Amino acid sequence: MELGLSEEQALLQETLRQLCEDRFPLEALRRTEAEEDGFPREFWDTLCELGVPGIAIAERFGGLGMGLLECALVHEQLGRFLVPTPHFVSSILAAEVIARSGEESWLSLWLPGIADGSHIMTVATLESGVGHDLSAMGAELTPLDEGARLSGTKHFVPFASVADDLLVLARNPKTGAVTAAIVPREAEGVSIRRQESLATEPCFEIAFDDVVVGADRILSGDADIGAAWHGAMCTGLVVLAAQAVGAAQHIHEISTAYAKEREAFGRPIGGFQAIAHYLADAIVEIEGCRTLVYQAAWRRDNGRAYQSAAAIAKLQACAMFRRVSALGIQVHGGLGYTIEADPQLFFRRAKQWQLLNWDDAFLEEEIARLTIDEEPERV
């Protein structure tokens, strides 16, 4: 494995870092949090001009055709500044599900718009009390003569209020098979409600009340949507881990800078071993998790089994981010617990990122299945 970045990769990383620093500092995040949609449209348009939405989409569909490592580098910087964009859910999850579905008509119809950012697609899978077992979903897609009827409720759907379409996973009540449908956000029978979350990120509850979906928007054939979803999530785990690494790096820098400025007993508090040692341990953890992310991305880009490495990266990176953000709160003392200070912006997101998109318990089971049971991994 080559641990160093190429000149092009380093340039990509620096370009995104500078862009986020200039266009989306933490003050911009605070303004975005106060908005109903929680979506920085102008910043998203800038990302689209740079081709970021299509970074991991094949060139024949208008994307840049880069690898997962490049995508991880982008999200490391987006995570560093806690930028709320639909890139993960639209350009990674939705695009991967479509690409893996084997539905050729879907590829040519949906991927070009996702690649240039003009078409935002979110994914609706989570349901109350169901966990990650797709076969236990309550949402039903009942076949009709022409199309199907969708009923059910999905929770914590990101960016649903600004998405053009919703990629919904549901069960066929007649066969029990898991299938997918792409539903227009403004379709009759679709109602969207903002859900409060610890991170104040744009998540929504969507109710589908006998929504009629056309046949051209329903996954047909013998495609295994469960396998497509699993593959898309494994790819997404690497991106989410990179995001957590970037965020942890930033809160560590903020905390280190504060420790050098804040004085107690006539000297900077960073000079006390009780703080200096914790900050030193944290940077070791951050670098370790960054290596896990790069390793998982490298394995996928080089055609090697990567699912276990991806699960480990997400498990470790999100747990690490949780610890480092908590350390940031403690270093800032009483100030760190106030909403006026920046550490809470990271601390609130750390726990939510750890819980969403396969929590620790599920990841541990997945790692055990892929390593102890020695099941063949999907590449």
Keywords:
four-stranded antiparallel beta sheet; 379 residues; Acyl-CoA/acyl-ACP dehydrogenase; Butyryl-Coa Dehydrogenase, subunit A, domain 1; oxidoreductase; three-stranded mixed beta sheet; Butyryl-CoA Dehydrogenase, subunit A, domain 3; 50% helix; acyl-CoA dehydrogenase activity; Butyryl-CoA Dehydrogenase, subunit A, domain 2; AcylCo_DH/oxidase_C; alpha+beta; 11 helices
What's the helix and strand layout?
Layout: H1 7-23, H2 26-33, H3 41-49, H4 68-80, H5 87-101, H6 104-116, E1 121-124, E2 140-144, E3 147-158, E4 165-171, E5 178-184, E6 190-195, E7 203-213, H7 225-261, E8 263-264, E9 267-268, H8 273-301, H9 307-331, H10 343-355, H11 360-371
Parallel strand pairs: 1-4
Antiparallel strand pairs: 2-3, 3-7, 4-5, 6-7, 8-9
What is the CA-CA span between the terminal residues?
Answer: 18 Å
**Radius of gyration, Cα only, in angstroms?**
21 Å
Order of helices and strands: HHHHHHEEEEEEEHEEHHHH
> Which class best fits the helix and strand makeup?
alpha+beta
Domain unit count: 3
Oligomer: single chain
**Spatial strand sequence of the major β-sheet:** 2-3-7-6
Taken as a percent bin, the fraction of beta residues is 5-15%
**In the CATH scheme, what's the topology name of the largest domain?**
Butyryl-CoA Dehydrogenase, subunit A, domain 3
Q: Percent helix among the residues?
A: 40-55%
